[in-house]
Amino acid sequence: MKRKNMIKVMTFLSITTGALMTGCSPTVKIEAPDKPIVINMNIKIDHEIRIKVDRELDSLLDNKKGLF
């Protein structure tokens, strides 16, 4: 008798556990947004290169060609 009762209890517990596990499963939904995604990029790039050479230094470099 004890064995039959134990089988009934185990069956009941397994059915109950199975029902509870299916009720707790998480749900993930992926939906597209209603409005489009807008990326506003206001970028201003200023690039300026300045090279200044004194006339004396320029003439010195022209006269001594073996420096570099």
Instruction: Specify the helix fraction band.
Output: 40-55%
Shape: rod-shaped
Distance between the termini: 106 Å
Query: Which blocks of ≥5 consecutive residues have pLDDT under 50?
Result: none
Q: Strand count, sense and closure of the main sheet?
A: none
Please tally the β strands and state the result.
Answer: 0
Give the rounded overall mean pLDDT. 76
Number of domains: 1
Query: Could you spell the SSE succession in H and E letters?
Result: HH
Q: Radius of gyration over alpha carbons?
A: 41 Å
Strand content: under 5%
Structure classification: mainly alpha
Determine the number of helices (DSSP H or I, runs of at least 4 residues): 2
